[in-house]
Fold these 2 entries.
Entry 1:
Amino acid sequence: MDLQILWFVLIAVLWSGYFLLEGFDFGVGMLLPFTPRTESERGAMFESIGPVWDGNEVWLVVAAGATFAAFPAWYATMFSGFYLAFLLILFFLIIRVVSFEWREKGDGEGWRKAWLWANAIGSAGIALIWGIGLANLIHGLPIDSNGDYDGGLVDLFTPYTVFAGLTFVVLFAFHGANYLTLRTSGGLYERVRVAARRLGVPAAAFGAAFLVWTVVVAVDRNDKDVFPVVIPAVLGIAALVLAAALTYADRSGLAFAMTALGTVASVATLFTGLYPRVMVSSTDFANSLDVPGAASAHYTLAVMTVVALVVLPVVLLYQGWSYYVFRARVTGEDVELPEPVASPTGGSPAG
Amino acid sequence: MSPLASTAVDLARLQFATTTLYHFLFVPLTLGLGPLVAIMQTLWYRSGDEAWLRLTRFFGTLLLINFAIGVATGLVQEFEFGMNWSVYSKFVGNVFGAPLAIEGLAAFMLESTFLGLWIFGWNRLSPRLHLATLWIAVAGSWLSGYFILVANSWMQHPVGYKIVNGEAQLTSVWALLSNGFALRAYVHTMLAGLIFGSIVMLGVCCWHFLRGHDVDLFRKAAKLALIVAVPVTLLQLVVGNRFGEAVTSAQSMKIAASEAQWNTCEPCGFSLIQFGGFSEDDETPAFSITVPRLLSYMATGSFGGEVQGLNQLQSEEESKYGSGNYMPNVRVVYWSMRVMAFTGVLMFMVAALGAWLYWKKKLEQARWFHRIAILSIAFPYIAASAGWVLTEMGRQPWIVQGLLKTSEANSPSVSTAWIAISLGFFIALYLLLGVVDFVLMRRYARPDRPPTREELPEPAVTF
């Protein structure tokens, strides 16, 4: 197989891996202000992703790094073009990353609440902007004949791209709820189950509309045929509808597998609709960046291929193992709240 | 270049300097404290001595608070190349992108996953396996440092490439990975990490001695910190010097500037300190203290070696690359080199003094030394920051030595206003993060610290 195509596929795989894994972390984050009732339930929600979220996030680091290495021009145009949007993403990423470690290290209800909201808002914000960002690749951006971005922040917002962002938010919230049905017990589990049922239909509806719209955009703006873009789209719609139905049958494992499939199929639809271009130009279609134009030379791609073939399976093995280690369900019940930490001055115990 | 364009480059540089230096306040402590905590846990595993378990958890908490902010600010670095330096990214992507991508896949993934296993695995893994997860996470962080320095060193000393259609293309991954500059920079940086870990640990122990808190416990930690700090701070002086030789051959201009050496000399004295002598109109310092022949030794390894001067190098570069100014900011580079070297020597002295006091069994009583050791926590931060200023500003005007100029490497599509906004944004956010981090670190390092997650009752687990 042509290495350029292989790396286009691998970039899609890395994004899929990122959203499949970090997607449910985002979902858990978004549900944090709503689902848990007690402090220990909130703690349990954090704990359900505590051990794994950082490893999940590295998929983004690898996706961005691989784009830099395999398609330098794509990386350069995309990252400089999405400047203010990526600045926002970085803000959300940062407050979310530190919230995990810092929330429990301070005193007071206000402190914990602030970091809980930081995690929730960060999660929703990241999902929203990635949705908008990736949808823009296919919908088209003002790119000049040098391959440089020639627009502002407003150019990123169109009905389709904003809808894509909202779809990511709803889809990941649902994905996260399904994850939690597998990882919680007791009263928390009961409420998570209800949340999953409530989110199922909106997620399927948003997902279906987004996928159909993506096929239309691919045909309309990226000169694609309906085939084969429609294949992952149909697969994605079917998976999400099935996931929504499965939540009512309490088939948590299958429902989670279906939202995972729906997430991967959504990324696959975007990338199938994008190929052979990597960024469509709305200024002049001829200015669009394409795979051969953006790709690194054969030698670099060959080196990277060898590394990926050797390392990626090992990564999957140990990440899989870490999920196995933390397979036990967390619960917010039957646990006394940790005794309030006595302050050094012996003053009132801080919550 | 228009004034506006040059402002954009300056702001983008300032932003990169700010975010990188900030990121590197946290990274080396992770690199150095990681293995120290792993050693403490190993000692507990081997001996069953509860003291080592308590120390593992105590310093482990500091490690994690610090790690979180290192991760958060590291993401900014990966995005920033593309956001602010798109011309650079296109030019180097073929070569520079590979170690960056491999770092994520092969090293950072390992570090993050296994650190998660370590944090939450206390009661779920066997003690042996749990200990292994920490060592693997540490190995991941050290591997990560290697790939990042391979990438950075290629900017200092490009190897294994050819220029095709105005872009650098990789011709030998082996040359890239075994770049002598990178290997030296790696040893230098990892030693810096160990200095961070051991000096910070020593300072924290002395804080507890000063308050008379848990003296027996922290004596053990102080001993470990000193066992690491003394040889490592000494070794760093030697390695730093060897690294200087590599710089001399790859970046003569950087060495000449770091010595404010305007004209070629043989043999050359090392200027310990000088006032004036930092610009072309004022080449002779008003006052200086110079050690004869020392610069020759440091730069070339021989006491009679020749070191090229800024003026000679300037005309050499002009004949090679066309007219232009090829000198970095001499004043900044000169002083950053000295700040780094002098604090390096100071840290060795503090470590040696501590070891002597320990040997005399006076370490826990010497209150004057406790204060010095607590203040010394600042030294590794100062030295490392100065070191990066020297490395990066000494390379100017080049972003990739001899291949691409910084002034031509920024993103054409990003306006000056946007860079100004993002710079302000990062400064504000980083200040806030820094304050919270400092408060939390202090809170968990202090003698009357609150209990950590591991000391609280574990949430119940059901299968």
Entry 2:
Amino acid sequence: MQADLVARVQADPRFQELVQKRTRYNWTMAIIMMIVYYVFILFIAFNPSALAAKLGAGTVMSVGILTGFLIIVFAFILTGIYVRRANSEFDALTAQIKENAK
Amino acid sequence: MMMRPMMIAAGLAALAYAGVTLAADGAAAKSVNVPATSMFLVFVALTLGITYWAAQRTRTAKDFYTAGGGITGFQNGLALAGDYMSAASFLGIAGLVFANGFDGLIYSIGFLVGWPIMLFLLAEKLRNLGKYTFADVASYRLSQVPVRTVAAIASLVVVAMYLIAQMVGAGKLIETLFGLPYTYAVVIVGVLMILYVTFGGMLATTWVQIIKAVLLLSGATFMALAVLFAFGFDFNAMFSKAVEISPKHDAIMAPGSLVKDPISAISLGLALMFGVAGLPHILMRFFTVSDAKEARKSVLFATGFIGYFYILTFIIGFGAIIMVSTDPAYLDAAKKLIGGNNMAAIHLSHAIGGDIFLGFISAVAFATILAVVSGLTLAGASAVSHDLYANAFKRGQVDEQAEMRFSKYATIALGIVAIFLGIAFEKQNIAFMVGLAFAVAASANFPILFLAIYWRGLTTRGAVMGGLGGLLTAVVLVVLSKTVWVDVFGYKDAIVPYKDPAIFSMPVAFILAWFFSITDKSAQAQQEREAFTAQYVRSETGIGAEGASHH
């Protein structure tokens, strides 16, 4: 990439806005996913009996299995939320930056 | 154009070989599974047809490596899911749930959560910077020869481990299901995968993967629905019955013995979570879509399909506890499952739909192996031809046609190596292979890729030391652990008490990369740091990124 193009893009305030917003968003989402997963893993490692607990009297369904299913669904929903924002807001901003840099 | 008749001839030869073998075996009175064999032959005929179609559309190196970059997000999502839903994860996780209940879910979740992480942190930047392989991205502003060499070696280690696991699994599965001798099964898988990849490149590999993913998802959905139907779609009733029947009773609903101590639990979690973002055959698929938007969509679809698939596998495992574990038809003299716990899903298909459905699921399992090994071989061949040959050995001074020709030779060579490895490892305990593949991916590929994209300070020296350090630490720790030292070499006690190395090998990679970068005072290192700015702008905006080719 030519140096002048790089300089022009970097000078665009919208580029700074995009990078700032998206970087924060990316890491927030990644950290949420990691926390959810590692809390689950740490429970398995340190407090398995909490996951073995039953959801209610008379049910065999355990907290662990329900949590497991919910984490799978959560991962998908989180991905969906991310893609929705990235494919609209961030891509629109990117398109403007590209247009401006031409 | 000489290739087409050759391809058809070779395909027919493979089929004829299969036919003859079956006839010979049938004579030996071992039951040949007719529905399974015929359905599998239909799959092979269809995929060879697709390969023929794809071969005519594969003219340039870009076509060969990335299917021309014109795959849609939805198609790529299915293909990614297909790459990930190997026979090992279908039969293995169902078997794990069958034996241990809840513990199977730990693996499923670990395998899944790597996907969102990859989307948030890598997918878009990878797509914006790369061309054919992830080494393109790792070496974007660094010295091509050393960085690509390290990336290619790590990729080949991952591909080899994965391939051995799949080939041995294929041989054993096909031996059991189709009544075909082990060696023949491995050879047939090897020959078909060479045909798909050599002639049809990424386009054929992708479509084979898509077809298989649809078949596998449909088959698994049918099985899970059949299990739930038997209990009037009442989960609680299903779990109650399983708890009553299972010899472990209520223990199958809770964390068990699979994860022994906190270090192992965290280490396994790290390898699973970051391993996905270091698997070369997965990363390569991000270059088959036209832009970052489609790349993101493909991860969304992949996460959905994979998550759904793991929920199905869980239900299938419980279904097998209920419908298979008490039926003497599926048990041997010692009251164990015939063919081992990994056959739980296969036996369940018979319990649900008789010989015809067993045939369908068997054929799908065979197709799954075939599709996954094809993707792996293409990734391995790309590492050899694009990274080692074209960019490291020839320093980029090679024309596209020559590079593509070389990648076809590399595919054939890898295919032959895979066949030999499959045969050589027949009697070995290969349980550690996929785990090691993930550990290496998380400890060598992921750190250099991540640092190359995010850290201005990374230099060639740092990337090389970090990549090699992570690779060697992961391999050495696995060799010294129980899985290899005791289970393979037969020593009495393991030297390293932990099975999963990632908690040690990932920090080693990051620390070495950091240390050897900051202490690198050379002029070249300074240039590499300065080149980060241009890379950063491209990675964030996609300006200058590879587009789709139109023809």
